Amino acid sequence: MPPRIWIPNKKAASKLASHRTEALSLYREILRTSKHFHWCDESGIPWNFRLRKQAREEFEAAREETDPLILARLLVTGRDCVQQIQQRFNAADQACWDRIKKDSDTR
Length: 107
Hints:
The chain is an all-alpha fold. It has three helices and no strands.
């Protein structure tokens, strides 16, 4: 069977729409995750503001991208990064609570 050539049609437009909804979902997830970063960086700017600003810049930079493979790669990479950050944050948070419990039990 010869290789198939991709021809844009209504189905392709719906794929781009699904990329759009997936990107919006990822962006909202980033915003929700950034709310948990309350501390400030060296210059006194809260990390949640920096994270939101950086996410917005990256999404704006990729706004005009139409190649489905690049879009898929960006979405998969972004989702993976957010999940890693969430897991690390939860692990650090749990370690803090364990330390608090341990310290309060020894008193």
